[in-house]
C-alpha cells in the first residue's frame, strides 16, 4: 500500500464498518488483488481461478451470494455486475465469529444476519419465500455431481424436507391448504435454539505481528 | 589506439583474476572459500537490518509468515462437518457447511498460493520481496542503496561475464568432444566439460550448494527425480554428477546449447509433437535405461515450477518406465534470493537476470535412498510414495493437486469424485427419511 496516510484512514473506516482488524484488512486486500488480477473490482469470472472452489457443489450459489444486492445491502433484489473491496469485506463479515462478549441483543442480531445470508442463498428470485421449486433447485445442485442419483430421488428428498418444514412452521395443515413457501420468519423458527455459530463462521486469525530475527 | 590500450590494460588483469579464481577451481572441483566469506558477511548484514527494522517499531513493516495464513481452516472431514445438525432438515445444514468451505477457499486456497513467490518473514534488503515497504531509518536506507549498487554494478557484470564464459565453453567444449570417436575417454571428457561449465554457471549466480547423503547419489542406469522450482535446478544437480537430460527441443540460445550437448552425451531431446505421444516417450526412455552404461536420467515429475514451499502431484508417466528411482530433494533458502520461476509473470531471461541481481542462491540437496516399485503397487501409488519421501526430507508440504492447475482448470473427474461422496451421504439419509415418513 503506497501512500500510507490516506490508506490508513480508509482502513479505519473499513474496520469500523466490517469489524475486521487493520492487519486482517490488509491481508484480505492482497487476496482481493490476487483474485481480481490487480483490478479495482471483481467479477464473477474471477472466482474461476480458485481450484478449491471448483469442488464445492454449491459453488455457483456461493459466487452469486457475493454479487447479491441484498447481501451487499444495496437493494431488495438483483445482482451487481462487479464488486469492489468494500463489498468484498461486507460479504466476508457475515462469516466472522459472533462475539459473545457483546450484549444479548447484538448476538441475536449477528445470528439473524448469518441466517439471512443463508436465506438469500436459497431464495434465488428474491420474493421473500423459499418455494418448493427453489428448494428442489438447491438439493439438485448439492447432488449434481453424482450421475447415479436420478432427478426423482432428488425431488423426493426436497419434497420430504419441505413437508417437514411446513409442519414445523404452520403445524397441521388443512387438506387443500397450500404451503406457499418458507418465509424468513419461518426460517428463523426452524433454527431457533440450534447453535449455528460454529457451522457458519470462518476463524480469521488475529495477525499479531511477530518480531523475528533471522 | 589509446582507448583500446586502456581497455586492454583494464581487462587483462581482470581476466587473469577470473581465470585463476574461477575457471581453474571449477575445472578441478576445488572450492576457494570466497563464497563462504561473502555469505557470512551477507548474513551479518541481514541480521543487523532485521534488528533495525524491529527497533523502528512500526508494526506494519514486519511481514507475517505466509504459511500461517489468514484463516484457520476447518480440516475436519466432510462427514464430521455435516453431522451434528442432521436431526433437522439436512439440506439446510449442509449448505452451511459448504458455504463455509467455499468462503475458506475464496479467502485462501492452498493451490494458487504455490504459484507465487514465498513471502519472507524478515526483510532481506531486496525491495522485490518486501510488499510493505516503509521507510524506517536513514541508516537502513543507506545500506539498501549500497546493496543495490553492489548487486547491480559489481556483481551483475561479473555474473553475466561468467555466464557468458560458461555457456560458450559448454557449446565449444561439447562440440569438440563430439568429434572424438566413441570411447571411454570421450565419455570422461564429456563429463569433465559438463561439470566444469555447470560449476562456472553456478558461480555465475553466486550459488552455494550443500549436498547431503552423497552415498545415495544416482547411479548409472537409474532415474533421478526431483522437485522443480526453477530452470537452474538442472545446473544445481549437474555440478555434482552428470545426468542425461530429458526435455523438449527449444529454439534460440537454449536450442543451440541443447544441440551442442547432445553431440558429446546422449541426452534425450524430444520434438514438441513427439512429447504428446506418451508411448513413444516411454519407449525411448526405457531403451535408455536398459543400457547400464548410460548416465542416469533426470526427470521433474511435477511438470512445472512450484514455489518451493510444497510438492505437488507427481505425474505417473515417469514412474511407469521401470528401473530404480533415485529421489532427490532440493530446497532453496529464500533469504538470499528467490529461485522460483513464475512463468506466467516473467520470461526465462528476465527470471535469470532477477536471480543474478539477488544476493546469492543458497540451497540444500538431499540424495535419498533408491526406491523401486513394489509388488501390487501401481504407478500412481509409487509416485505418491516417492513424493512423500521427497517432501519429508526437504521440509515441504505435500499437496495432491496437479501443478498443471497453474494454467488449466480443475478436471471434471476430480470434481465428480467429491460430489459423489457427498451425495452418497445424503441418499443414505434420504432413504431413512422417506422410511420414517
From TrEMBL, chain A:
Location of the EF-hand domain: 110-145
Subunit architecture: Monomer. Homodimer; disulfide-linked. Interacts with SLC9A1/NHE1; the interaction enables an optimal Na(+)/H(+) exchange activity.
InterPro entries: CHP3 (IPR052490), EF-hand-dom_pair (IPR011992), EF_Hand_1_Ca_BS (IPR018247), EF_hand_dom (IPR002048)
Location (main, coarse): other
Spans annotated as Disordered: 1-22
Family to which this protein belongs: Belongs to the calcineurin regulatory subunit family. CHP subfamily.
Gene3D superfamilies in alphabetical order: EF-hand
Subcellular locations according to the entry: Cell projection, Lamellipodium; Cell projection, Ruffle membrane; Cytoplasm; Membrane
A cellular component term, taken from the record's GO annotations: cytoplasm
UniProt-listed GO biological process terms: cell differentiation
Record-given protein name: Calcineurin B homologous protein 3
Role noted for this protein: Functions as an integral cofactor in cell pH regulation by controlling plasma membrane-type Na(+)/H(+) exchange activity. Promotes the maturation, transport, cell surface stability and exchange activity of SLC9A1/NHE1 at the plasma membrane. Promotes the induction of hematopoietic stem cell differentiation toward megakaryocytic lineage. Essential for the coupling of ERK cascade activation with the expression of ETS family genes in megakaryocytic differentiation. Also involved in granulocytic differentiation in a ERK-dependent manner. Inhibits the phosphatase activity of calcineurin.
Lineage: superkingdom: Eukaryota
Entry annotated with the keyword Transport: no
Gene Ontology MF annotations: calcium ion binding; protein kinase inhibitor activity
Automatic annotation (TrEMBL), chain B:
Protein family (similarity comment): Belongs to the 1-acyl-sn-glycerol-3-phosphate acyltransferase family.
First-listed, main subcellular location of the protein, grouped into a coarse class: endoplasmic reticulum
A GO molecular-function annotation: 1-acylglycerol-3-phosphate O-acyltransferase activity
SMART domains tied to this protein: PlsC
Membrane-spanning residues: 12-34, 160-180
SUPFAM superfamilies named among the record's database cross-references: Glycerol-3-phosphate (1)-acyltransferase
Membrane topology type: Multi-pass membrane protein
Name of this protein: Glycerol-3-phosphate acyltransferase 3
Keywords: Acyltransferase, Endoplasmic reticulum, Lipid biosynthesis, Lipid metabolism, Membrane, Phospholipid biosynthesis, Phospholipid metabolism, Transferase, Transmembrane, Transmembrane helix
Any one annotated GO CC term: endoplasmic reticulum membrane
Phospholipid/glycerol acyltransferase domain location: 222-333
Source taxon at top rank: Eukaryota
Compartment list: Endoplasmic reticulum membrane
Pathway: Phospholipid metabolism; CDP-diacylglycerol biosynthesis; CDP-diacylglycerol from sn-glycerol 3-phosphate: step 1/3; Glycerolipid metabolism; triacylglycerol biosynthesis; Lipid metabolism
GO biological process annotation, one example: glycerol-3-phosphate metabolic process
Amino acid at each position: 500500500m503506497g501512500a500510507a496516510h490516506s490508506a490508513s484512514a480508509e482502513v479505519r473506516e473499513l474496520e469500523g464498518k466490517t469489524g475486521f482488524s487493520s492487519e486482517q484488512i490488509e491481508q484480505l486486500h492482497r487476496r482481493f488483488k490476487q483474485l481480481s488480477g490487480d483490478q479495482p473490482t471483481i467479477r464473477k469470472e474471477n472466482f474461476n481461478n480458485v481450484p478449491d472452489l471448483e469442488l464445492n457443489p454449491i459453488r455457483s450459489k456461493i459466487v452469486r451470494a457475493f454479487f447479491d444486492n441484498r447481501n451487499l445491502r444495496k437493494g431488495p433484489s438483483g445482482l451487481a455486475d462487479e464488486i469492489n473491496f468494500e463489498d468484498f469485506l461486507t460479504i466476508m463479515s457475515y462469516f466472522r465469529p459472533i462475539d459473545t462478549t457483546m450484549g444479548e441483543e447484538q448476538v441475536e442480531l449477528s445470528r439473524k444476519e448469518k441466517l439471512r445470508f443463508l436465506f438469500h442463498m436459497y431464495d434465488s428470485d428474491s420474493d421473500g419465500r423459499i418455494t418448493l421449486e427453489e428448494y428442489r433447485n438447491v438439493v439438485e445442485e448439492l447432488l449434481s455431481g453424482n450421475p447415479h442419483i436420478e432427478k426423482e430421488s432428488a425431488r423426493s428428498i426436497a419434497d420430504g424436507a419441505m413437508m417437514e418444514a411446513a409442519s414445523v412452521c404452520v403445524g397441521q395443515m388443512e387438506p387443500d391448504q397450500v404451503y406457499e413457501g418458507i418465509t424468513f420468519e419461518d426460517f428463523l423458527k426452524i433454527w431457533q435454539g440450534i447453535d449455528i455459530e460454529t457451522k457458519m463462521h470462518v476463524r480469521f486469525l488475529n495477525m499479531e505481528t511477530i518480531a523475528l530475527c533471522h | 589506439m589509446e582507448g583500446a590500450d586502456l581497455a586492454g590494460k583494464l581487462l587483462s588483469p581482470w581476466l587473469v583474476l577470473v581465470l585463476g579464481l574461477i575457471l581453474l577451481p571449477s575445472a578441478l572441483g576445488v572450492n576457494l572459500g570466497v563464497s563462504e566469506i561473502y555469505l557470512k558477511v551477507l548474513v551479518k548484514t541481514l541480521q543487523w537490518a532485521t534488528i533495525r527494522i524491529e527497533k523502528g517499531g512500526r508494526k506494519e513493516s514486519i511481514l507475517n509468515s505466509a504459511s500461517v495464513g489468514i484463516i484457520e481452516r476447518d480440516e475436519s472431514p466432510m462427514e464430521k462437518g455435516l453431522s451434528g445438525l442432521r436431526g433437522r432438515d439436512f439440506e439446510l445444514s449442509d449448505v452451511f457447511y459448504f458455504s463455509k468451505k467455499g468462503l475458506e477457499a475464496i479467502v485462501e486456497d492452498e493451490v494458487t498460493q504455490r504459484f507465487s513467490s514465498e513471502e519472507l518473514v524478515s526483510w532481506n534488503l531486496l525491495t522485490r520481496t518486501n510488499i510493505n515497504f516503509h521507510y524506517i531509518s536513514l541508516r537502513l536506507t543507506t545500506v539498501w542503496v549500497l546493496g543495490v549498487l553492489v548487486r547491480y554494478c559489481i556483481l551483475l557484470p561479473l555474473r553475466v561475464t561468467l555466464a557468458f564464459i560458461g555457456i560458450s565453453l559448454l557449446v565449444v567444449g561439447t562440440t569438440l568432444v563430439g568429434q572424438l570417436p566413441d570411447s571411454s575417454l570421450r565419455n570422461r571428457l564429456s563429463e569433465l566439460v559438463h561439470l566444469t561449465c555447470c560449476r562456472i554457471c553456478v558461480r555465475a549466480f553466486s550459488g552455494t550448494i550443500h549436498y547431503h547423503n552423497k552415498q545415495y547419489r544416482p547411479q548409472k542406469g537409474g532415474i533421478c527425480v526431483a522437485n522443480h522450482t526453477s530452470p537452474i535446478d538442472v545446473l544445481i544437480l549437474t555440478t555434482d554428477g552428470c545426468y542425461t537430460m530429458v526435455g523438449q527441443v527449444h529454439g534460440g540460445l537454449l536450442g543451440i546449447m541443447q544441440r551442442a550437448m547432445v553431440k558429446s552425451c546422449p541426452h534425450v531431446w524430444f520434438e514438441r509433437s513427439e512429447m504428446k505421444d506418451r508411448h513413444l516417450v516411454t519407449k525411448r526412455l526405457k531403451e535408455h535405461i536398459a543400457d547400464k552404461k548410460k548416465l542416469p536420467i533426470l526427470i521433474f515429475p511435477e511438470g512445472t515450477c512450484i514455489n518451493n514451499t510444497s510438492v505437488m502431484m507427481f505425474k505417473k508417466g515417469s514412474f511407469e518406465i521401470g528401473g530404480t528411482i533415485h529421489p532427490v530433494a532440493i530446497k532453496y533458502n529464500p533469504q538470499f534470493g528467490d529461485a522460483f520461476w513464475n512463468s506466467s509473470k516473467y520470461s526465462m531471461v528476465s527470471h535469470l537476470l532477477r536471480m543474478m541481481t539477488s544476493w546469492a542462491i543458497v540451497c540444500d540437496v538431499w540424495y535419498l535412498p533408491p526406491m523401486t516399485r513394489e509388488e501390487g503397487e501401481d504407478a500412481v501409488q509409487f509416485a505418491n510414495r516417492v513424493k512423500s519421501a521427497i517432501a519429508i526430507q526437504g521440509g515441504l508440504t505435500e499437496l495432491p493437486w496437479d501443478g498443471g492447475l497453474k494454467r488449466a482448470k480443475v478436471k471434471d473427474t476430480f470434481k465428480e469424485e467429491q460430489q459423489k461422496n457427498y451425495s452418497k451421504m445424503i441418499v443414505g439419509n434420504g432413504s431413512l427419511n422417506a422410511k420414517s415418513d
